[in-house]
Write a structure and sequence with these properties.
Blueprint: E1 13-16, H1 22-34, E2 47-50, E3 57-61, E4 72-75, H2 78-86, H3 93-109, H4 114-122, H5 129-147, H6 152-188, E5 194-198, H7 213-222, E6 226-232, H8 239-250, E7 255-258, H9 263-268, E8 274-277, E9 281-283, E10 288-291, H10 294-303, E11 308-311, E12 317-318, H11 335-338, E13 339-340, E14 357-358, E15 371-374, E16 381-384, E17 387-389, H12 394-409
Parallel strand pairs: 5-6, 5-8, 6-7, 8-11, 9-12, 11-16
Antiparallel strand pairs: 1-4, 2-3, 3-4, 9-10, 10-15, 13-14, 16-17
Helix pairs in contact: 1-8, 2-4, 3-4, 3-5, 3-6, 4-5, 5-6, 6-7
Bound molecules: 5-S-methyl-1-O-phosphono-5-thio-D-ribulose.
5-S-methyl-1-O-phosphono-5-thio-D-ribulose binds at residues 88, 91-94, 128, 200, 202, 206, 211-212, 239, 278-280, 290-291, 370.
Length: 410
């Protein structure tokens, strides 16, 4: 690699790339939403490892600025990455795992304290189990290399190799989940023409591949079997409006955005054939933590006899957390609810708390859990890369996870 500690750049974070103006983004969305073509106007990956002459960096597509701008963040140390995780510049369970693993590798190759970096990364957000898992994979590889007598450079290479491996595995898992998911949809809803409702963001922005739930919708679209993707806007941070709509537009899918509270009338009108969501943590009993607003959709789906399908890699299944009540649900700052922030639109004289435009009286308290938990009895099926779990029981889930362990260790 030819890099030494003294060569390390002094910057912590920089941005580059030509920002797109809003009109440009709109034109792209129009062009790709309605052309029916499945091509992408940009190929900026959500995450990538680079080794410029100044030293290795982790480059992230800054998701807080989408869809207004496609801007990359360059992380040169774990603390910058921790901040990017907390601010949701990088987000979504599988991608958090990949980012965490690369973060450990970054600390190792740049000569920082790897244990300290691993702890800070693993605890940056509490709910998505993939984050701590990804950190552990790279950290264990680093420790194993040292224990086998390797030097710091070899240990850093081992951590990086583990991160790259996790990245690849996630891409493969995504493709297999899409296959299983489409097969399941065809079984549950013969005849195609699926109208699928999704929540939050689960596409290539959260994955080494094409995502989880979104990857299934995308595969259905490519097979000509998706009539419409209903996209929940996903208050308060609008991952649906900003990110899923952006991905759907780029993929040429027929999609319609709705406010979260419009879902009920959509079900009542008989316009939803299935709900597809991702997950941040699936407990041993099959409870599913996902973006807040998922549980109300599960209740609606049950009332209206619509399948409620969770798509997640086995890395999201956490056998060590027994049930939904044991999940730590991240509580986020109240200003995310009491203010609105348009991506990249500067706000003159903005309120102190979060820099957005206040939409509630000053001093209003807000309840802002980032996730909610859906009990297994409301989940029709969990689609993993190892197969479909339905009905959702602890035994069936454990069996699918065991299949994955056999593949990894065998
Ligand atoms: O707070 P976020 O944006 O990280 O939440 C993401 C979600 O809830 C996703 O639905 C989940 O991680 C599944 S992504 C495949």
């Amino acid at each position: 690699m030819g890099w030494s500690w003294n060569d390390r750049p002094r910057y912590g974070l920089r941005t580059f790339n030509c920002p797109l103006d809003r009109g440009q983004t709109d034109r792209m969305a129009d062009q790709y939403a309605y052309s029916g073509d499945d091509k992408r106007p940009t190929e900026i990956p959500a995450i990538r490892w680079e080794e410029p002459p100044e030293g290795p960096v982790l480059v992230l597509l800054d998701q807080t600025r989408l869809p207004a701008e496609e801007v990359e963040l360059v992380c040169t140390d774990a603390s910058t990455l921790v901040e990017a995780i907390r601010s949701l510049a990088v987000r979504g369970a599988p991608l958090l795992g990949i980012a965490g693993a690369y973060g450990v590798a970054l600390a190792a190759v740049r000569g920082f304290d790897v244990d300290e970096a691993a702890t800070a990364l693993a605890t940056a957000r509490p709910t998505a189990v993939n984050l701590a898992l990804g950190v552990r994979r790279a950290h264990s590889a680093h420790e194993a290399a040292l224990a086998e007598g390797g030097d710091v450079r070899q240990a850093a290479s081992a951590a990086l190799a583990a991160a790259r491996q996790l990245h690849r595995e996630d891409a493969e898992a995504s493709a297999r989940m899409a296959e299983h998911g489409v097969t399941l949809l065809d079984e549950l809803l013969p005849g195609g023409g699926h109208r699928i409702l999704t929540h939050c963001n689960t596409g290539s922005l959260v994955s080494g591949g094409e995502g989880t739930a979104f990857a299934v919708a995308l595969a259905a679209h490519r097979a000509g079997r998706l009539r419409r993707l209903w996209v929940d806007e996903t208050r308060p941070l609008l991952q649906g409006a900003r990110l899923t709509a952006y991905e759907a537009a780029r993929s040429g899918m027929a999609y319609t955005l709705l406010t979260d509270n419009a879902a009920g009338s959509l079900f009542a009108a008989g316009e939803v054939d299935a709900v597809l969501i991702g997950a941040d943590r699936i407990t041993a009993d099959g409870s599913v933590a996902n973006k807040v607003g998922s549980y109300p959709l599960a209740v609606l789906a049950r009332y209206h006899h619509v399948p409620f399908i969770v798509v997640a890699p086995v890395t999201t299944v956490d056998p060590d957390t027994p049930d939904g009540a044991s999940i730590e649900v991240e509580q986020r700052p109240g200003h995310e609810v009491t203010e609105v922030v348009a991506p990249q639109v500067p706000v003159a004289g903005a309120a102190e708390a979060g820099g957005g435009i206040p939409v509630a009286p000053l001093g209003t308290q807000a309840y802002n859990p980032a996730f909610d938990v859906t009990p297994p009895e409301l989940v029709t099926a969990i689609v993993t890369e190892e197969g479909v779990v339905s009905p959702v029981t602890a035994e069936a889930l454990a069996e699918v996870c065991a299949r994955s362990r056999r593949v990894t260790t065998g």
